[in-house]
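Feature request, filed as a ticket because there's no other form

It would be nice if the structure record came with a short human-readable summary line next to the tokens. Right now we just get the raw output. Example of a typical job, pasted below so the devs can see what we mean:
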Amino acid sequence: MSVQPTAANAPLVYLIAGEISEIRLYSRLEETKWLLDIAHDLCDPLAMRGTLVQWDSNARIWRSTLPTDVLVAAIYCYVLPAGTVVGITKISERSGKSKTSGMGPTAGTMRTRVITRDKQCWVNGSWGPLVNSHIVPKRMGNHLARHILHNFCPGFPSATASVFDTIFGIASSTAIASFFDTYGYGFRMTTAGHYEVHTFLPALDDPTLRYTALGIYRMNTPFALLHGHPASPPHPQAPDLPPPGLFRWHYIQCVTGKFGHTDYKNLEHIVYSVASDIVFEGESEEGSTDSEADWPTAAWDRGRAHKDDMVHEEEVHDSVAKWIASV
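Raw output as currently delivered:
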């Protein structure tokens, strides 16, 4: 899949690529709708203004598609309305680990609240041992976490959100929590409040082993496979459940981690470093599966947040200028 060129003769910027047999493990019955949703969430998660066209190699033209079309082995292009600009931003590389202090909101408090809210694992229903799995990494900090809420969860109050709020975590069995943390599996919504687990984990060296909802076991064990397993909040009426848009963001990390195209990753001047002295107040790794590493779409998220900040600043300046002119 590629993003729309800025001019008719401009080269395509390829975003994700994979064998159709692998892609179908995730698109399943959704067909082209799955790929369109991925394109939306990569390029325009808030407004979802784009459409998909498919390259017809015989006629050498782009053909329009419908979400119900069968997904085939072809080049698809995400086309935005005329005048709409989507930025391709830098990729962040981790240059160190976050540092911690003993003051302020804590991951320990978040963990207690998340496990108290859920009481069971979202995937296998286990009552324990449980940990708090962060949907967005604490490395993101409050500022970027708020931008994720704004772009993926329209209407959700984001102005005062903290990365340690309970909406950013789910209770996970220790047997599978690390898979979620490393974007080895994500949740794809099936119906409101219900999800299907999609795994993006590497193949196991031992062919007799498999990923199950209870961890890694031999093929002759009766445990259900992790891929395709249902997932849902153990207590759907509990307060402060994660909004579905956060799982969309996490799922995009999984997809990009597995299918991200090298053309995007290797763009000239696309890489920059992350400061190694970020302080997370009161952080503790005990009972948490959050990673120190950047997430796959860190560059996109940071770039989108920077763009939003610039637009906001321009709007403030315009308002002040108009007020001065009216005085």
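Something like this underneath would help us a lot:
The helical segments are 20-27, 32-43, 107-118, 141-152, 177-181, 244-259, 262-265, 298-326.
DSSP finds eight helices and 16 strands in the chain.
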